[in-house]
Every structure is written in C-alpha cells, then in structure tokens.
Amino acid sequence: MKKLIKYVAVVVVLFIVAYNMVYFKKLDEVKASATKAFDAEGYAKTFMDKKLPVAESKAVEINGLLAKLKSDPHDTFDAYGHALAIGSTRFFMVKGKGIIDSVTYDVIKLKTGADSSSISIATEFVFGNAIRDASNQVNINDFTNTIDLSNVSAEINKIIRTRVLPPFKAKAKKGDKVEFTGAIELNSAHLIIDDVEVIPATLKLNP
After folding, report:
1. 2-205, superfamily in CATH?
2. What are the structural domain ranges in the chain?
C-alpha cells in the first residue's frame, strides 16, 4: 500500500511539473508578437530621409579634416570621430567637391584640391557601418540586440547601392565636377590618410 501511495505521489508531482512546463497562447497574441519584429528596412528609410540630412548639415569639409588629422590627430578624432563600439576605429561624416580624375569598376577618383590631393568614392563595394556610425544619429540603446543594429547598416548600404549610386555611375565621366557627402573610416592606431575612401551618402554631378 505504501508503495502504491508513493507511486501515485510521484505521478502527481511529474504531472504538475509537466503541466507547468507547457503553456498555450492565444493565436492573436502570437500574431501580435510576430508583428513586433524589428523593421530594419523601415528604420533605414527613415534614417536616410530624416536623420541623415541632420548629419550632413554637420559634416566636416574633407580637405580641412585631413589637414587637421595631419597636425593634431588625437584632438581631431575626439572632435569629429564617431562610433557605436569601443576601440580605435572612428567614422567621420564628410563633405566636399572635386573633379573626376578616373572611373573604374569599383571606385571613382576625385581631385579635391589645388595640390592634386585626391580621394576615392566607393561605387561598388558599399558595406560596413560607416554611414550609420559617422552620422551620430543612431542610439545603440534603442536596440534590443546587435542583429537588429547590424541589419540597419545592411539596409542603409542597400539604399545607397540602389538609390544613390546607379544614377551617378550612369553619367559620371572623367572631368566632371562632383559634390558629395559621405563617411570615412579611420583607425587612430594605424592612421593612413593618403587616398581615403568615402562611402557616399549623396552625390551630385556638375553642381
């Protein structure tokens, strides 16, 4: 009899544990939860249309920035560099004008100064976090995970590749004047500022 009581008690305990491990949600609740998934594409569109113009209004002229980096890199990084992650890499929102010196598959070279200084505009391989971070318009605390944050960068870059670059590349040729805004990535520990590459945010031909 004691064994039977013990057996029944064990069965009851197991039933209670199993019951508490299984729960059900209403279908409406499941659907509502699914619709709350982060919309990286929508965020990126809003960023490009509303937040990026704010960043562009504060962009530093690229020749002036490069001159400051040569004379006082430490303070220049502190004053103009941005990043969402800790480390020596910083992103700078820049603007400038130049004349197209050469056009290749993946970059366009611009002469940006009387001293023949030049930069490269990336026209094919647009990736990474340059525009997102250089803008200083994205708050990491607004995101619940790093995947959403990375997806924002991917969508921003996608807009640049599909909306900004095609009309520019279709007409750009050597000798054309270009006005641009964009972002550059630099590392304070290994600073190289010869022929920097700009990830473009806006491009205007013959302004």
Report:
1. Envelope glycoprotein gp160, DUF2291, alpha/beta domain (2.40.50.420)
2. 2-205
Task: Give 24-57 pLDDT, tens digit per residue.
Answer: 445 455 444 444 689 999 999 999 999 999 999 9
Instruction: Please write down the HEC assignment for all residues of the chain.
Output: CHHHHHHHHHHHHHHHHHHHHCCCCCHHHHHHHHHCCCCHHHHHHHHHHHHHHHHHHCCEEHHHHHHHHHHCHHHHHHHHCECCCCCCEEEEEEEEEEEEEEECCCEEEEECCCCCCEEEEECCCCCCCHHHHHCCCCCHHHCCCHHHHHHHHHHHHHHHHHHHHHHHHHHCCCCCEEEEEEEEEEEHHHCCCCCCEEEEEEEEECC
